[in-house]
Amino acid sequence: MAAGENPAGQAHPGSGDGQGERGNPGGGRGAPRAVLLTVDDDVSVSRAVARDLRRRYGGTYRIVRAESGAQALEALREIKLRGDAVAVLLADYRMPGMNGIEFLEQAMDLFPAARRVLLTAYADTEAAIDAINVVDLDHYLLKPWDPPEEKLYPVLDALLDAWRATDHRPVAETRVVGHRWSARSYEVRDFLARNQVPYRWYLADEPEGARLLTAAGANPESLPCVITTDGSALTDPTDTELAAQVGLATAPTGDFYDLVVVGGGPAGLGAAVYGASEGLRTVLLERHATGGQAGQSSRIENYLGFPDGVSGSQLTDRARRQAVKFGAELLTAADVVTLEAAGPARRLLLADGGQIDAHTVILATGVSYRQLAAPGLTELTGRGVFYGSALTEAPSCSGQDVYVVGGANSAGQAAMYFSRHARSVTMLVRGKSLEASMSHYLIQQIAAVPTITVRVCTEVVSAQGTDHLESLVLRDNSTGQTEQVDSQWLFVFIGAAPRTDWLDGVVVRDEHGFVVAGPDLVVDGQRPSGWDLDRDPYHLESSVPGVFVAGDARAESVKRVASAVGEGAMAVALVHRYLAKR
Ligand SMILES: Cc1cc2nc3c(=O)[nH]c(=O)nc-3n(C[C@H](O)[C@H](O)[C@H](O)COP(=O)(O)OP(=O)(O)OC[C@H]3O[C@@H](n4cnc5c(N)ncnc54)[C@H](O)[C@@H]3O)c2cc1C
Q1: Predicted pLDDT of residue 214
Q2: Element (H or E) spanning 126, and its range?
Q3: DSSP H helical segments within 278-402, as ranges?
Q4: Dihedral of CA 398/399/405/406: which sign?
Q5: Candidate from 240, 293, 547 with most ligand 1 atoms within 8 A of CB, to mutate
Q6: What are the C-alpha distances in Å from 22 to residues 31, 60, 63, 161, 313?
Q7: 230-245: per-residue pLDDT in tens?
Q8: Pairing mode, if any, of strands 385-387 and 367-369?
Q9: In testing the pocket of ligand 1, which one of 365, 368, 557 has its CB within 8 Å of the most ligand atoms?
Q10: Do 315 and 298 form a contact (C-beta atoms < 8 A)?
C-alpha cells in the first residue's frame, strides 16, 4: 500500500452520514465527500488510475485505492460503518484471489447504488460482457485509456450524473418502528422496499425501538412509527404521507399532459420511456410502487438481454431512471379512481381528490393476486399470510418452515428465493403436476433444491392463529385426507384478477374485467356503443377513443414482462397516430 495516496483502510476525517449528503455529494466545506474507489493488483496501474481520478474529481470526491479485492472490501466496510457514500467502484478484472467481478458482486451488497465499472484488457472483453448481467455492470473500460479526457472522464461523468440523480433521496436513516405481526407495519416496509427506499426496521418491544418511540414521543398503541432522515416522526402514516416524506414525487407539476399512463409496472414504465423519449409530455400515475408485479420478482430469467436473470427491483430501477432521464414525471401513491371524457380531453380523478387532464391515456393497471378463500386467512393477512412475494419478509423466515401456494412461475421463483433463508419450503399445488403451469427451467431448479417439497393435489383448508399465523390445515384432494401443519409463513400466488372495477361502464371490459381493445371491439361489423369516430379502434385502443390499454390488464394479453413492455411501446406509437389524425 502506498503512503500519501489516501489508500484503502485509512480513515477520512470529518466523516458523517454520507447517505444524507447525496443531494450534494460534493458537499460544502467540511462535509463528507462521497468515495470513488479503485482496485487493481498492479501497483503502477492502481496509482495511475487514482492519479487520473484525483486530477478531475479530487476536489469533489474522495479517491480511495486498493490493491486487492479483499483490501477494497475491507475499505468499503469501514466506509459503510462511518455512514459515508460510495459513488463509483472501478475494479480490475484480472486480480489474483478475487477477480473484479467477484469483488463487485460482494461490493453490491454493501453499496448497491454505487455505479460499477470493470477495467479489462482487450482479451477479457467477453468476461466483461458477462459481468453486465452478473453484477449489473454499468460500464467496462478497456485498458489503457489514454487520454483520460476522451476515454475515462466522459464515462465517469455520465455515471456520476446518474448516481447523483438517483441517490439524492435522504433515505439512509429512515427508520420504521412497529410490531412484528402488525399488518400495517408490514405494508409500510413493503411500500418502502418496493419504492427502493432503504430503511431500518426496529421492533417496538426491543430496546432501540423503544428508545426511538420515546424520542419521537410516539404512542406504542398507534404504530408503525416512521422516522425520516430529517428527524420527523410520522405515526401510522398513509402511503401518500410516507411517499412525500421520503422524497417520492406525489403531485404533478402541470395540469395538462399529452399522455397520462396509469400504472407503473413494465407496461406503464415502457410507455413512459417511449412517450417521454418521443417528445410527449408524459406523466405516470402509480398507486403503490413502480415495478408492478415484476418489481416483486426475485429473479426474472426469461426477459430478453439478461441471460443470467435480473431481479425485479434492478429492472425497475433502470426503467425508472430511463423514464426520468427522458423527462417523464413518475408519481407514487397516485391512485386513479375515475376516467371520464371532458370534451376532447381525457380526465383522470385521483383518490386524494386530485385531477389530471390529457390528450391521451394508456391504461397499464395490470393484475393482482386473487385472495385465497379459506377460513382464517383474511384475519391473518399481513400477519403470516402474504399475497405475492413479500420479499421483505425473507430474512425473518430464516430457519423456519415456509408454505407457498401456487403452481405458476411466480410461486416457483418465490420457493427458490425463500429456500435460501427457510429451513424448508413446501409448495402447495392444486393441480396434478407443475408441468402444466410452470416453465421447464424453473421446475428443474426446484427439483435440484433438497429443502423444497412440492405437494400436488393439495390445498389450504383453513388457517389458525391468534395474533399471527400458527398453523394450517391442508387437504390432499386425491385422498381427501386432511392434516394440520405448524407454520408462521404462508405466501399465496394464485391466479390474477385485473384491477379495473373503477372503469366499469366507462370502457368495454370482458367478463373477467380485462379491458377489451382494438379489433375485438368490433362485433359483427358493429363498433362499440358510443364510438363516434369514422374509423375502427386502433389495435390497443379501448372503446373510448384516445384511451389505450397495455400489458396484463388487456383482454387476451400474454402475461409476461416482455409483452407488457412491448405493448407499452406500441401503445405510444398508436397515441402518436391518434394525435396526428384527431
Ligand atoms: C412474483 C412474480 C414473478 C414473475 N416472474 C415473471 C418472469 O420471470 N417472467 C415474465 O415474463 N413474467 C413474470 N411475471 C409476470 C409479469 O411480472 C407481468 O406479466 C408484468 O408485470 C405485467 O406488467 P403490467 O405493467 O401489465 O402490470 P403490473 O406489473 O401488474 O403493474 C400494474 C401496476 O399498475 C398499478 N395500478 C393498478 N391500478 C392502478 C390505479 N387505479 N391507479 C394507479 N396505479 C394502478 C399497480 O399498483 C401496478 O404497479 C411475474 C409476476 C410475478 C407476480
Answers
A1: 83
A2: helix 125-134
A3: 312-325
A4: positive
A5: 293
A6: 11, 12, 17, 12, 21
A7: 778 899 999 999 999 9
A8: unpaired
A9: 365
A10: no
The per-residue pLDDT for range 98-124, each reduced to its tens digit, is 999 999 988 887 788 899 999 988 777
Ligand 1 centroid vs 126 CA: distance in angstroms?
Answer: 33
Distance from residue 365's CA to the centre of ligand 1 (Å)? 8
> Count of CB atoms within 10 A of residue 566's CB?
18
d(CA 384, CA 378): 11
Report the half-sphere exposure of 159 (CA within 13 A, side-chain side). Answer: 23
Query: pLDDT per residue over 405-436, tens digit each?
Result: 999 999 999 999 999 899 999 999 999 999 98
Q: Number of C-alpha atoms within 13 angstroms, CB side, residue 396? A: 16
> What does DSSP assign to residue 538?
P
**φ, ψ for residue 340 (rounded to 5)?**
-145, 160
CA 396 to ligand 1 center in whole angstroms: 25
Q: Does ligand 1 lie within 6 Å of residue 300's CB atom?
A: yes
- Quickly tell me which residue has 495511475 as its cell: 48
Residues 484 and 455 sit within 8 Å (Cβ to Cβ): no
**Segment 140-199, tens digit of pLDDT:** 888 877 788 988 999 999 999 888 877 544 345 788 999 988 999 999 999 998 998 889
- Cross-strand bridge partners of residue 482: 475
Q: pLDDT tens for residues 493-502?
A: 997 899 899 9
Integer angstrom CA distances of residue 130 from 121, 137, 185, 487:
14, 9, 39, 40
Residue 325 burial (CB < 10 Å; 0-12/13-18/19+)?
middle
With vertex at residue 566, the alpha carbon angle to CA 290 and CA 517, rounded to the nearest 5 degrees, is 95
pLDDT for the residue 530: 93
- In terms of pLDDT, which residue wins out, 256 or 14? 256
Q: Which amino acid is present at 396?
A: S
The dihedrals phi and psi of 187, each to the nearest 5 degrees, come to: -60, -40
- Over its C-alpha atoms, the chain yields an Rg (Å, rounded) of 26
Instruction: Yes or no: say if 183 and 377 are a contact pair by the CB < 8 Å rule.
Output: no
pLDDT at residue 546, as a whole number: 98
Mean pLDDT over 488-514 rounds to 94
- The residue with cell 410461486 is 411
The number of angstroms, rounded, from the C-alpha of 120 to the middle of its chain's C-alpha atoms is: 30
Span from the CA of 485 to the centroid of ligand 1 (angstroms) = 32
b vs e for 421-441, b when ≥16 Cβ sit within 10 Å of the residue's Cβ? Answer: bbebbbbbbeeeebeebbeee
Longest dimension (CA), the chain: 83
Quickly list DSSP for 467-493: SS--EEEEEETTT--EEEEE-SEEEE-
SS3 sequence of 152-210:
CHHHHHHHHHHHHHHCCCCCCCCEEEECCCCHHHHHHHHHHHHCCCCCEEEECCCHHHH
List Cα–Cα distances, 414 to 117, 217, 405, in angstroms. 31, 39, 10
Exposed/middle/buried for 288, CB within 10 Å: 0-12, 13-18, 19+? buried
Percentages of the chain per state (helix, strand, coil), in multiples of 5: 30, 25, 45
Position in ligand 1 atom list of the atom nearest CA 439 = 8
Q: Residue written as cell 427506499?
A: 197
